[in-house]
């Protein structure tokens, strides 16, 4: 369906400024965002992000006075047991650190805007752990996967991927065929029923539609106040103001909530303006070698972006990592050889490293995830070896699992600050605060965002800077 036809009969959006939301935020409140991969930071600016969650990490982040703190759990790359354990650990530490700091925590489970990830596992675990640790048990779980900046919107509870003016129900896209987190439903109410295997039937999911949201903050608050305790609420969003209305309603609702959201909702909830893209003049580079572009994602959009990057920069050295050799017996020797090649090439300019576009999967979701982890581990080891030999000018990591592992393991980033987006509303730039990557701008680039030339544009901003 063309986007104009989809939106034709909707009420007009409200004019809600970010400043209105900022004024409504309780100074004692803080969002603790459990980010299931680091691409959740792409819609915010000037906020702390942690890849570890010891008490000192959370306490230090709360001491900054930030209204939101990102904790990179990377659970989308883990099995259910490991994912559950990480969620429990973060809740325990965050509640203890918040109590000491006098902070009131709202937990955010940041999931994928194309509906992949551990749902309902993560929200179930969070709710149970909050209650068991003496926190206020969430009364509602709001499901807000929309990401308008990247063409993901929700209308009448149906979640769409919009590209080239066409709105495609997300259940009909390649994302729904994910080997680990696949699904069939595009209507969020049906999707909840599907993912909970009927434990939460579709008709028990409350639908907060645009007809309510665009009737105003009071109407939205009244709707949420009337929803039975324990319910999941599917939230419509087409543009930023829709999320700001929901945020204002929640700030005055006086009900404990748990949020399962896509990247931009945090920005709306804390009243951040949509940040302007970072320019080369905003960035400090510690090294004058070429930059390193690492591509691990296999979604079709990433492959198209890689193709366009190579077409625009045909002289850029490109190293292809053979996925089958990364999971083979002579992996170490292969990685040592490739790392030496990359390090030498960085002396002359930017280097692209990508895995072969063949997607190797296992017999089931767990086996496929294990293979993906092994491949990602090979990419991480390569980057780590290159960093030790020849630290690059910048690092771009393309893909969720890839960018998480490169950040926490290869670059050893424990704490960083999200400087802002590299493109409007998408692709975040981190300034590492710890580890060997201090002074190396790190760009987190999701596999499923942007258009064909987006990767090339980001590379140009960094590689062509004076």
CATH first level of the largest domain: Alpha Beta
Number of domains: 2
* Gross geometry: globular
Q: Which sequence of strands runs across the widest sheet? A: 9-10-5-11-4-1-3-2-16-17-18-15-12-14-13
**Percent of residues in helices:** 25-40%
Distance between the termini: 45 Å
CATH homologous superfamily classification of the largest domain: Putative sugar-binding, N-terminal domain
CATH topology call of the largest domain: Rossmann fold
Instruction: Identify the CATH architecture of the largest domain.
Output: 3-Layer(aba) Sandwich
How does this model look, in words?
This protein is α/β, with parallel strands linked by helices and 466 residues long. It folds into two domains: 3-270, 3-Layer(aba) Sandwich (Rossmann fold); 280-463, Molybdenum Cofactor Biosythetic Enzyme, Chain A (3-Layer(aba) Sandwich). The chain is 37% helix and 20% strand. It contains 16 helices and 18 strands. The protein has helices at 3-7, 18-24, 55-63, 80-101, 121-132, 188-195, 210-213, 217-226, 240-251, 265-270, 300-312, 323-326, 331-346, 365-389, 400-410, 454-463; strands at 29-35, 47-50, 68-72, 104-110, 140-144, 152-155, 158-163, 166-169, 206-208, 231-235, 257-261, 292-295, 317-321, 351-355, 395-398, 415-423, 426-432, 442-445. Strands 9-10-5-11-4-1-3-2-16-17-18-15-12-14-13 form a 15-stranded mixed β-sheet, with helices on both faces. Strands 6-7-8 form a three-stranded antiparallel β-sheet. The chain is globular, with a radius of gyration of 21 Å. The chain starts with a helix and ends with a helix. The model has no long low-confidence stretch (mean pLDDT 93).
